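Supplementary Methods S3. Input chains for the assembly prediction are listed below.
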Amino acid sequence: MAKVEFNIACTLCEHLKDSLFNGLSPEELNRINLHKTCISYKKGQNIFYEGTRPTGLYCMNGGKVKVYKNNVQGKEYIIYIAKPGDFLGYRALLGEEYYAASATVLEDAKICFITKDHFFEVLQKNPAFMKRVVKAICHEMGIMEEKMAELAHKSVRERLAASLLMLKESYGMEGEGSTLIDIALSREDLASIVGTATETVIRLLSEFKSEGLVSFEGKKIRVLEPRKLAKQADLIIG
Amino acid sequence: MAKVEFNIACTLCEHLKDSLFNGLSPEELNRINLHKTCISYKKGQNIFYEGTRPTGLYCMNGGKVKVYKNNVQGKEYIIYIAKPGDFLGYRALLGEEYYAASATVLEDAKICFITKDHFFEVLQKNPAFMKRVVKAICHEMGIMEEKMAELAHKSVRERLAASLLMLKESYGMEGEGSTLIDIALSREDLASIVGTATETVIRLLSEFKSEGLVSFEGKKIRVLEPRKLAKQADLIIG
DNA sequence: ATTATGACATGACAAAAGTCATCTTTTTGG
DNA sequence: CCAAAAAGATGACTTTTGTCATGTCATAAT
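Predicted structure tokens for the full assembly:
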């Protein structure tokens, strides 16, 4: 479980195109490159804990990381699953607060770390970059507003259907019509995404399966009938 | 129900101290002042609708406004209640998206409107202001993360207790130990804040009342036992 | 190969919360 | 000032969901 360092030049990073860093000049990318540390993490390793102070920004280069909160009784709610190209921990960093959530590796990950000072330097010297970051944050907020309204008034069945569709969109396998959800999620993790008990997810998933809406392929789920699932999620009327 | 214009110089605004505009130079404030329109709204009037495009920023000068989403079945979830000094509609503006929520006046309000271009001009010419805005947005995101985790795993009873405490903190009357929640909220609105049915809120509130945790004063609620309520909200263990 | 461990699955049951109907009280508009 | 409408309250009932117990299966460690 030892952390292993690696190094990839930011200018050559295959995920640059999916990242907010896309659009920075080669000079800016090189400055970040000089001040970053890249580490490989194994499944189950922790990146940061709720309640601690951020010292810099994480940038995903490979794998998947869940960002989650635990309540007093130990129940987990997964706020977000970070994939390559995503920033991690930027909210607490820019808000100058403690982390409000924890982050743990779901699938073996490669993550670069840029110290706070260097990130802020690039941010403040490049207004266009700042604007892109602000835009992305506001977009994220819109998604959170949507999720709160869903949690407030949708049934677990509707939320599970909506979560499966969201996962298909965000983490769908390239090709194959993108119907395979390309994350090896446990039922427990899926329950933490939906905000329900593990047993409930298991029951509903097998209902969806027997209704022909999804199929299971190894540890992964394939969405067979996105439109019918959208109807279950109450996203389509009719 | 006609909208009535009024005008107050930004430099003299009594809510400037509570606003993100606090810290701007008199010149910047005057520029905003020159390009703003201030309107008085009556209770029940709409400020903007979900799905429309923002054309500028609203800045609260008086009253209360609810920001909410309606789901397909017409159930409402209140994301935020804006009070004097607050910005309104900045998320969609900065995210360059449609409004993800609607805004309606809860208590007669005075609201100033600054067009997008002028707001962006001040924002881009003043990096310190930009930084404050980003910090505030990120703080808001942290609150939303907390709320999502609450909605996912807390009971309605716990959420109602937590909402009452939050309302007391954010909208508590000055003086009086700030125990009176100074918004005339209907049971229906309170249900939309908690994310539950109106009947459930009514029942739980009268339970809280008979347990001596709260009392009703006219249309308003007084929190009598914040610590016991915090225990109900599962914020304190013991 | 065998055991231990964790993930998945299912049943039984209880608790929480939503829905619908009805009634009372308060507020508002004419 | 009165009628109509809206808000608040309460009971009866149903549905949804969580919890606990138990069992199976796959995987990993020894």
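Residues 155-157, 196-197, 199-200 of chain A lie near DNA strand D (CB under 10 Å from a C1'). Chain A touches chain B through 44 residues (CB under 8 Å).
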